[in-house]
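In the current project phase, our protein records have gained a C-alpha coordinate line. A sample record follows, to show the layout:
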Amino acid sequence: MNKRNSGPRASRGLRNRYLAVTLASIATAALVGLVASTSGQSVSSASVAPCAPRLVEVDLSSLARSPELANFADQLIMASAESSIVCDSTPLSVVGVAGGGDYRMILDSADLASLTPLGPNPTIRSARFSANDRSELSRLVSHDLLAAYRATTSDTTSSVEAFYVLAAQEPSPTHIIAVTPGVDVGPVNLNRPLAAGDGVRAASSVSVPRLPKGDTFTEVGIGQVDATVPAPSTTWIDEIENFNHALCLKATHDLTSCHLLSVATTSQVLDPLN
Protein backbone atom coordinates (compact mmCIF):
# COMPACT_ATOMS: atom_id res chain seq x y z
CA MET A 1 0.00 0.00 0.00
CA ASN A 2 1.24 3.47 -0.84
CA LYS A 3 0.15 5.88 1.84
CA ARG A 4 0.73 9.48 2.67
CA ASN A 5 -0.48 11.34 5.74
CA SER A 6 1.35 13.46 8.28
CA GLY A 7 4.98 14.47 8.43
CA PRO A 8 7.67 14.86 5.75
CA ARG A 9 7.39 13.62 2.21
CA ALA A 10 6.36 10.00 2.02
CA SER A 11 7.81 7.31 -0.23
CA ARG A 12 7.38 7.91 -3.95
CA GLY A 13 5.82 4.50 -4.52
CA LEU A 14 3.30 6.16 -6.81
CA ARG A 15 5.97 6.92 -9.38
CA ASN A 16 5.85 3.54 -11.05
CA ARG A 17 2.08 3.04 -11.20
CA TYR A 18 -0.21 4.40 -13.85
CA LEU A 19 2.19 7.03 -15.15
CA ALA A 20 -0.10 8.42 -17.81
CA VAL A 21 -3.27 10.43 -18.23
CA THR A 22 -5.61 11.19 -21.08
CA LEU A 23 -8.98 12.90 -21.31
CA ALA A 24 -10.20 10.25 -23.72
CA SER A 25 -12.26 8.04 -21.41
CA ILE A 26 -12.17 4.29 -21.34
CA ALA A 27 -15.42 3.18 -22.96
CA THR A 28 -18.33 3.10 -20.58
CA ALA A 29 -19.29 -0.23 -22.11
CA ALA A 30 -16.11 -1.76 -20.71
CA LEU A 31 -16.98 -0.51 -17.25
CA VAL A 32 -20.50 -1.82 -17.64
CA GLY A 33 -19.16 -5.25 -18.46
CA LEU A 34 -16.67 -5.19 -15.59
CA VAL A 35 -19.10 -4.05 -12.91
CA ALA A 36 -21.93 -6.21 -14.20
CA SER A 37 -19.69 -9.29 -14.23
CA THR A 38 -19.55 -9.19 -10.42
CA SER A 39 -23.28 -8.68 -9.99
CA GLY A 40 -25.00 -11.49 -8.15
CA GLN A 41 -21.83 -13.28 -7.18
CA SER A 42 -21.50 -14.45 -3.60
CA VAL A 43 -18.75 -12.31 -2.12
CA SER A 44 -17.11 -13.84 0.91
CA SER A 45 -16.05 -11.62 3.78
CA ALA A 46 -13.37 -12.78 6.17
CA SER A 47 -13.94 -9.84 8.48
CA VAL A 48 -16.28 -6.89 8.57
CA ALA A 49 -14.91 -3.36 8.69
CA PRO A 50 -15.20 -1.50 12.02
CA CYS A 51 -18.52 0.21 12.71
CA ALA A 52 -18.32 3.88 11.68
CA PRO A 53 -20.50 6.43 9.87
CA ARG A 54 -19.16 6.68 6.31
CA LEU A 55 -19.55 8.77 3.19
CA VAL A 56 -18.16 7.05 0.09
CA GLU A 57 -17.67 9.38 -2.87
CA VAL A 58 -17.07 7.79 -6.28
CA ASP A 59 -15.50 9.84 -9.05
CA LEU A 60 -17.65 9.45 -12.20
CA SER A 61 -15.48 11.70 -14.38
CA SER A 62 -13.73 10.68 -17.59
CA LEU A 63 -10.35 10.31 -15.90
CA ALA A 64 -11.75 7.93 -13.27
CA ARG A 65 -13.18 5.41 -15.74
CA SER A 66 -10.41 2.85 -15.64
CA PRO A 67 -11.64 -0.74 -15.14
CA GLU A 68 -9.37 -1.10 -12.11
CA LEU A 69 -10.82 1.92 -10.32
CA ALA A 70 -14.40 0.98 -11.20
CA ASN A 71 -13.86 -2.53 -9.88
CA PHE A 72 -12.31 -1.20 -6.68
CA ALA A 73 -15.24 1.18 -6.17
CA ASP A 74 -17.61 -1.78 -6.44
CA GLN A 75 -15.63 -3.76 -3.85
CA LEU A 76 -15.36 -0.79 -1.50
CA ILE A 77 -19.08 -0.02 -1.62
CA MET A 78 -19.82 -3.68 -0.98
CA ALA A 79 -17.56 -3.79 2.08
CA SER A 80 -18.92 -0.47 3.40
CA ALA A 81 -22.50 -1.65 2.96
CA GLU A 82 -21.87 -4.93 4.75
CA SER A 83 -20.31 -3.03 7.65
CA SER A 84 -23.36 -0.75 7.82
CA ILE A 85 -25.68 -3.77 7.80
CA VAL A 86 -24.06 -5.74 10.60
CA CYS A 87 -23.52 -2.55 12.61
CA ASP A 88 -27.32 -2.14 12.75
CA SER A 89 -27.64 0.44 9.97
CA THR A 90 -24.70 2.64 10.94
CA PRO A 91 -25.08 5.68 8.63
CA LEU A 92 -23.71 5.14 5.14
CA SER A 93 -24.07 7.29 2.05
CA VAL A 94 -22.56 6.41 -1.32
CA VAL A 95 -22.56 9.29 -3.79
CA GLY A 96 -21.23 9.64 -7.32
CA VAL A 97 -19.39 12.89 -8.04
CA ALA A 98 -19.14 14.30 -11.55
CA GLY A 99 -17.99 17.64 -12.89
CA GLY A 100 -17.87 20.59 -10.54
CA GLY A 101 -20.59 19.37 -8.24
CA ASP A 102 -23.02 17.06 -10.00
CA TYR A 103 -23.85 14.59 -7.24
CA ARG A 104 -25.73 11.33 -7.82
CA MET A 105 -26.95 9.24 -4.89
CA ILE A 106 -25.91 5.61 -5.43
CA LEU A 107 -27.21 4.07 -2.20
CA ASP A 108 -27.54 4.73 1.52
CA SER A 109 -28.40 2.96 4.76
CA ALA A 110 -32.12 2.98 4.03
CA ASP A 111 -31.55 0.83 0.95
CA LEU A 112 -29.97 -1.84 3.15
CA ALA A 113 -32.69 -2.15 5.78
CA SER A 114 -34.26 -5.28 4.29
CA LEU A 115 -30.92 -7.10 4.42
CA THR A 116 -30.16 -6.36 8.08
CA PRO A 117 -30.28 -9.58 10.17
CA LEU A 118 -31.62 -9.61 13.70
CA GLY A 119 -29.15 -9.83 16.54
CA PRO A 120 -28.00 -7.97 19.67
CA ASN A 121 -24.50 -7.09 18.40
CA PRO A 122 -22.38 -6.91 15.23
CA THR A 123 -20.76 -10.30 15.83
CA ILE A 124 -24.06 -12.15 15.89
CA ARG A 125 -25.53 -10.13 13.04
CA SER A 126 -22.43 -10.87 10.95
CA ALA A 127 -22.81 -14.59 11.60
CA ARG A 128 -26.46 -14.39 10.52
CA PHE A 129 -25.66 -12.46 7.33
CA SER A 130 -26.04 -15.34 4.90
CA ALA A 131 -24.45 -16.08 1.54
CA ASN A 132 -27.81 -15.31 -0.08
CA ASP A 133 -27.92 -11.95 1.70
CA ARG A 134 -24.39 -11.19 0.47
CA SER A 135 -25.32 -12.13 -3.10
CA GLU A 136 -28.36 -9.86 -2.97
CA LEU A 137 -26.21 -7.03 -1.63
CA SER A 138 -23.68 -7.59 -4.43
CA ARG A 139 -26.44 -7.32 -7.03
CA LEU A 140 -27.77 -4.14 -5.44
CA VAL A 141 -24.33 -2.47 -5.29
CA SER A 142 -23.36 -3.40 -8.85
CA HIS A 143 -26.74 -2.31 -10.23
CA ASP A 144 -26.69 1.08 -8.53
CA LEU A 145 -23.04 1.82 -9.35
CA LEU A 146 -23.59 0.83 -12.96
CA ALA A 147 -26.62 3.12 -13.17
CA ALA A 148 -24.50 6.04 -11.92
CA TYR A 149 -21.85 5.44 -14.59
CA ARG A 150 -24.47 5.14 -17.31
CA ALA A 151 -26.22 8.34 -16.23
CA THR A 152 -23.01 10.37 -16.47
CA THR A 153 -21.61 11.48 -19.81
CA SER A 154 -18.23 10.03 -20.71
CA ASP A 155 -16.61 13.47 -21.20
CA THR A 156 -17.35 14.70 -17.68
CA THR A 157 -14.47 16.66 -16.15
CA SER A 158 -13.04 16.10 -12.71
CA SER A 159 -13.13 18.51 -9.78
CA VAL A 160 -11.35 17.30 -6.66
CA GLU A 161 -12.69 20.14 -4.53
CA ALA A 162 -16.25 18.90 -5.20
CA PHE A 163 -15.48 15.94 -2.91
CA TYR A 164 -14.71 18.30 -0.03
CA VAL A 165 -17.80 20.44 -0.63
CA LEU A 166 -20.02 17.40 -0.23
CA ALA A 167 -18.02 15.99 2.67
CA ALA A 168 -18.32 19.24 4.65
CA GLN A 169 -22.10 18.75 4.80
CA GLU A 170 -21.84 15.46 6.69
CA PRO A 171 -22.34 15.36 10.47
CA SER A 172 -19.24 14.64 12.53
CA PRO A 173 -17.63 12.23 13.09
CA THR A 174 -17.73 10.70 9.61
CA HIS A 175 -15.11 8.77 7.68
CA ILE A 176 -15.13 10.26 4.17
CA ILE A 177 -13.67 8.07 1.44
CA ALA A 178 -13.12 9.51 -2.05
CA VAL A 179 -12.38 7.03 -4.84
CA THR A 180 -10.63 9.20 -7.43
CA PRO A 181 -7.37 9.51 -9.38
CA GLY A 182 -7.17 13.05 -7.97
CA VAL A 183 -6.57 14.77 -11.31
CA ASP A 184 -8.31 18.14 -11.22
CA VAL A 185 -9.45 19.54 -14.57
CA GLY A 186 -11.28 22.53 -13.18
CA PRO A 187 -10.93 25.16 -11.83
CA VAL A 188 -7.24 24.25 -12.22
CA ASN A 189 -6.08 21.93 -14.99
CA LEU A 190 -3.64 19.21 -13.96
CA ASN A 191 -4.05 17.28 -17.19
CA ARG A 192 -0.87 18.84 -18.59
CA PRO A 193 2.89 18.70 -18.04
CA LEU A 194 3.67 19.63 -14.45
CA ALA A 195 7.02 20.88 -13.17
CA ALA A 196 8.27 20.53 -9.61
CA GLY A 197 6.18 22.71 -7.31
CA ASP A 198 3.21 23.03 -9.68
CA GLY A 199 1.01 20.78 -7.54
CA VAL A 200 1.35 22.87 -4.39
CA ARG A 201 1.00 26.11 -6.37
CA ALA A 202 -2.20 24.83 -7.98
CA ALA A 203 -3.60 23.81 -4.60
CA SER A 204 -2.92 27.28 -3.18
CA SER A 205 -5.41 28.73 -5.68
CA VAL A 206 -8.18 26.26 -4.81
CA SER A 207 -10.55 26.85 -1.90
CA VAL A 208 -11.96 23.87 -0.03
CA PRO A 209 -14.23 23.98 3.03
CA ARG A 210 -12.99 22.86 6.42
CA LEU A 211 -14.40 19.50 7.38
CA PRO A 212 -16.16 19.15 10.75
CA LYS A 213 -13.79 18.38 13.61
CA GLY A 214 -13.57 14.63 14.11
CA ASP A 215 -13.96 13.74 10.42
CA THR A 216 -11.37 11.60 8.66
CA PHE A 217 -10.70 11.99 4.93
CA THR A 218 -9.25 9.13 2.89
CA GLU A 219 -8.53 9.54 -0.81
CA VAL A 220 -7.79 6.33 -2.71
CA GLY A 221 -6.81 5.82 -6.34
CA ILE A 222 -4.34 8.69 -6.65
CA GLY A 223 -2.76 8.54 -10.09
CA GLN A 224 -4.79 5.55 -11.30
CA VAL A 225 -5.62 6.70 -14.82
CA ASP A 226 -5.24 5.37 -18.35
CA ALA A 227 -1.68 4.07 -18.68
CA THR A 228 -1.64 3.68 -22.46
CA VAL A 229 -0.25 7.17 -23.11
CA PRO A 230 3.04 8.57 -21.73
CA ALA A 231 2.79 10.84 -18.72
CA PRO A 232 2.61 14.57 -19.50
CA SER A 233 5.91 15.04 -17.64
CA THR A 234 8.35 13.02 -15.55
CA THR A 235 7.28 14.81 -12.37
CA TRP A 236 3.56 14.64 -13.13
CA ILE A 237 2.63 11.84 -10.71
CA ASP A 238 4.53 13.52 -7.86
CA GLU A 239 2.73 16.79 -8.43
CA ILE A 240 -0.70 15.08 -8.54
CA GLU A 241 0.12 13.63 -5.13
CA ASN A 242 1.35 16.99 -3.82
CA PHE A 243 -1.78 18.78 -5.05
CA ASN A 244 -4.11 16.34 -3.29
CA HIS A 245 -2.04 16.30 -0.11
CA ALA A 246 -2.12 20.09 0.10
CA LEU A 247 -5.90 20.20 -0.37
CA CYS A 248 -6.44 17.50 2.25
CA LEU A 249 -4.35 19.38 4.81
CA LYS A 250 -6.37 22.54 4.10
CA ALA A 251 -9.62 20.74 4.84
CA THR A 252 -8.75 18.63 7.88
CA HIS A 253 -8.13 19.76 11.45
CA ASP A 254 -5.06 17.65 12.18
CA LEU A 255 -2.48 15.75 10.16
CA THR A 256 -3.69 12.32 11.28
CA SER A 257 -7.14 12.95 9.73
CA CYS A 258 -5.75 13.00 6.19
CA HIS A 259 -4.88 9.79 4.28
CA LEU A 260 -3.83 9.52 0.63
CA LEU A 261 -3.52 6.11 -1.02
CA SER A 262 -2.75 4.94 -4.51
CA VAL A 263 -3.47 1.20 -4.43
CA ALA A 264 -4.89 -0.44 -1.32
CA THR A 265 -7.20 -3.17 -0.10
CA THR A 266 -10.70 -2.33 1.07
CA SER A 267 -9.65 -3.22 4.63
CA GLN A 268 -6.83 -0.67 4.53
CA VAL A 269 -9.18 2.02 3.25
CA LEU A 270 -12.00 1.33 5.71
CA ASP A 271 -9.66 1.15 8.70
CA PRO A 272 -6.81 3.52 7.74
CA LEU A 273 -5.25 3.79 11.18
CA ASN A 274 -4.48 0.06 11.37
Summary: Residues 1-30, 36-46 have pLDDT under 50 and may be disordered. The domain at 3-40+49-269 is CATH 3.40.50 (Rossmann fold). The chain is about 35% helix and 15% strand.
